[in-house]
Amino acid sequence: MKENLPQNGRENVLSVTALTRMIRGVLEAGFPSLMVEGELSNVRRPSSGHCYCTLKDEGAQIRAVIWRSDLRALAVEPRDGLLVRVSGSLAVYERDGSYQIVVRRMEKSGLGALQAAFEALKKKLAAEGLFEVARKRPLPLLPRAVGVVTSPTGAAIRDILNILGRRFPGLHIILSPARVQGEGAAEDIAAAIRRLDRHGGIDVMIVGRGGGSLEDLWCFNEEAVARAIAASSVPVISAVGHETDFTISDFVADLRAPTPSAAAELVVGCKDEFLERILRRRLDMKRMLQHLLLAARSRYASAAGSYVFREPGNAVKVHRQKIRTLAAETVYLLERCFRDRQQRVDDQSLRMGHRIRLDFDRKSAELRVLERQLAAFNPMAVLQRGYSLTLKHDGRIVRSPEEVQAGERIQTRVGGGTFESQVVGMEEQGK
Question: Is the pTM here over 0.85, yes or no?
Fold first, then answer.
C-alpha cells in the first residue's frame, strides 16, 4: 500500500531547539523539587565562582550545579568522595541538550565508597609510620639526573620538560612511562617506580599526573603505589592533580608539589640564579681576602716600626732581667713553701706520737683486764686447787661412770701433770 506523504514533508518536523524546549518544559515542570542522595565526584570550581560536580551511585550518574549565591549558604563543603543528600530542582541546559540538578541545599550523609577506602588506607599507613616527618628526606641542592614517572603522552611530562629545560638546560631526565588512569594503572605506576629505582643514576624522582576527578586520580590512592614510593632509595616528589587535590601518594612522598610544574620548579632552581649566587659568593670571598690582606699588612707595618724590631738588643736585656727577677722570686717562694711544709710535718709528728702513746696505754689496760677474766674462766686453774680431769683415750672428758667400761684405759690430769690408769670396776653413786 502506498502512503501519501505531505506535499512539502515538513508539517510534523521539529527543530532541535523546539524539541529541547519541549523536553525542558516537561522535565522542569515534572521535577520542580526533588531530593537525591549520591556520591560527589569531579567537583570543580571555575573562575565564575559556581561549583560543578557529578552525583553518582553504583548504577548511574547525573550532573549537578551549585550557583555561587547558594554555595556560600551550604552547610557542607563539596569535595570528591563525599556521600551527600541534595535538595533542588531539575534543569535542562539547552545548548548542550543535557539536564542537571540545580542544588539549593546539601547535607552530608557519610563517606562514599572511594572516600571510605581512602580514609581506611590512610589510617593503616599512618599507623605504620609511613607519613612520619622524621623519614622525609631533603631534596638534593643540585641534582645531576631527575627521574619522572608519568604518562609519556600526558600534559604532566610536557610541563615538567618545559620547566626543567627553561630553568636548567642540559639536566639529565629519565622517563619511566606508566598509565596514570584506569584499571591496572596503580600496578603500572608501582612497577615504573621500582624500575626507575633499579636503573639508578638519579638523584630525585617525580611521580604524578595532571588534574582530574577522584576516579581519575584514584590510582595514586592505591597501596601498591604508596609502598613503592616509600621503598624508593631516592627522595620522591608527589605531583598529582591540582593544588586542591590530595592523594595517599602525597602523604607518603618526601615532598608534595601542588602540580607537576611546581614539582619541576622544586627539583631545580634557575641555572642563571644559581650561577649568580656563585658569582656573589666569589665576590664576597674576594672582598674578605682583601680585607684580611690589608689587616695583615697593617699589623706587619706596626710590628716593623715597634721598639722591639728597632732595638732588638735592648729588648733582649729587658727580658733577661725579667727572667732573673722571676727566677729569684721563684727560689724564694720555693724555700718559704718548703719551710712551711717542714714545720707542718713536725707538728703532725708530735701530735701523732702523743696520740699513739695514749692509744697504747689504753689498749694495754684493756688487755690486762681481759687476761684476768680469761684466767678466772680457765679450767686448768681449778686443777691447782686439788681437782682433777678424767679423759678417755680419744681426749674426751669423762662426765659420768657410764661413759667408761671396765678394763678401759683412761687419763687423769691433775695440777702437776697427767697419769694413765685402767678401770677395774665401777660403783653406782650412793652405794
Answer: no
| Domain assignment of residue 25, yes or no | yes
List all residues 6 or more positions away from 291 whose beta carbon is below 8 Å from its beta carbon: none
Q: For residue 226, with 0-12 CB atoms within 10 Å meaning exposed, 13-18 middle and 19 or more buried, which class applies?
A: buried
- For the chain, what is the mean pLDDT? 85
User: What are the cell numbers at 186?
Assistant: 596503580
Three-state DSSP class for residue 404: coil
Domain membership flag for residue 360: no
CA atoms within 13 A on the CB side of 51: 25
Domain containing 406: what range? Answer: 383-422
CATH of the domain at 84: 2.40.50.140
Distance CA 139, CA 253 (A): 11
Q: What share of the chain is helix, strand, coil (3-state, %, to 5)?
A: 45, 20, 30
Give the separation between CA 37 and CA 33, rounded to whole angstroms: 14
- Report which DSSP code applies to 235: -
In a domain, 92, yes or no: yes
Give pLDDT tens digits for 268-295.
865 666 778 888 888 899 899 988 988 8
Q: What is the dihedral of CA 32, 38, 39, 42, to 10 degrees?
A: -30
Q: What are phi and psi of 30, to 5 degrees?
A: -80, -25
Per-residue pLDDT, 3: 41
Same domain as 141, residue 254: yes
Could you give the 3-state DSSP secondary structure of residue 389?
strand
Total structural domains within the chain: 3
- Which pLDDT does position 249 carry in this prediction? 94
